[in-house]
């Protein structure tokens, strides 16, 4: 990733509020929670659009990524790690199983649990999706120094840990 000078920061000070019909208060910087939420919505929209030509939904891409990282998972584990409900995960898994992207096998240690695993076909479509998402991530990180991107990633990981409790 090329390293370039970081973007200039917006001024952080605001002018005092004026009463009556005088000048309006300067806009305060958006809250961090607002910015993270806004970025989440933008990324979801852009990833959904970018993955569609590959034949993947965002939920499928996320699930395939989780299975690739974990090796195997139950439907409940996959739902939790893919940010979808168990019912939605079941629908996603059924569609991916029909496309032969995953296998479903009974857990040898627990009869009621079904273990999901990625197939070679699933890995192939995941590689295509990963290339698409990598391109989008490169666009997002344009003009950001590698050290700044690493710092942001570390902070986001800490935010998630803090909120999980």
Automatic annotation (TrEMBL):
InterPro entries: HTH_MarR-typ, MarR/SlyA-like, WH-like_DNA-bd_sf, WH_DNA-bd_sf. Residues 1-30 are annotated as: Disordered. Coiled coil: none annotated. Residues 29-161 form the HTH marR-type domain. Residues 1-17 have a biased composition (Low complexity). SMART domains: HTH_MARR (SM00347). GO terms for molecular function: DNA-binding transcription factor activity. It holds the Pfam family MarR_2. GO terms for biological process: response to stress. This is MarR family transcriptional regulator. It comes from Caballeronia arvi.
